[in-house]
Specification:
Layout (H helix, E strand, L loop, with lengths): L9 H4 L6 E9 L3 E3 L1 H9 L16 H5 L2 H12 L7 E13 L3 E13 L2 H11 L8 H8 L30 H4 L10
Parallel strand pairs: 1-3
Antiparallel strand pairs: 1-2, 3-4
Helix pairs in contact: 4-6
């Protein structure tokens, strides 16, 4: 748990850029679920092209993922004030549950969340999946820091009531490890 430099796309840091996050509603084997913020922050890291066929190029994406489940949640929340989407679009027409973001199974959900408040969108997405933000560290930290609206009672939902569209997604198998960010940090 110490800082590491991470190279970020200049375009993402340009104050004149308007960042749109087009994310899928899905579970994730490392952070429980991903929404608009993780989509933008991890996508902002510099990824160099491969120097040769069969050789992986350098990527700072791994720095953002660094520090295990505690570290990635902290990193996402810490970078959120500078690297958040201005428009969050979360596509849940067909979600993904289980061992996402790659090995999950489809969920016929037929929902979409759009907001200029990325934390409100991610909060609604977590609720639609039957999670709430209490299990998603970076959203909990962002809410505690006041980085957007995370109170469902203060988020205006257009259309049918949110409760009519909640589906309990099957979560990744290793939830105990994924929720380790909730426990106090042990002295080494």
């Amino acid at each position: 748990m110490r800082p590491h430099p991470c190279r970020i796309s200049k375009m993402m840091l340009d104050p004149n850029s308007f960042i749109i996050s087009a994310a899928k509603l899905k579970t994730h084997f490392f952070v429980v679920a991903t929404f608009s913020l993780k989509n933008v922050v991890v996508g902002s890291a510099i990824k160099e092209p491969s120097p040769a066929k069969g050789v992986m190029g350098r990527s700072d994406k791994f720095i953002i993922h660094g520090g295990g489940t505690r570290g990635i949640h902290y990193n996402l929340a810490a970078l959120a004030p500078r690297l958040h989407p201005h428009l969050a679009v979360i596509d849940g027409f067909e979600g993904m549950e289980g061992e996402g973001p790659v090995d999950g199974t489809p969920v016929d959900h037929r929902v979409c969340v759009v907001s200029t408040d990325w934390l409100a969108a991610d909060t609604v997405g977590a609720e639609l999946m039957g999670l709430g933000i209490a299990r998603v560290g970076h959203l909990t930290y962002a809410a505690q820091a006041g980085l957007g609206q995370a109170d469902l009672n203060k988020i205006e939902i257009l259309g049918p009531p949110l409760k009519d569209h909640i589906k309990a997604y099957k979560l990744p198998a290793d939830m105990e490890r994924l929720l380790s960010w909730q426990k106090p940090l042990q002295n080494a």
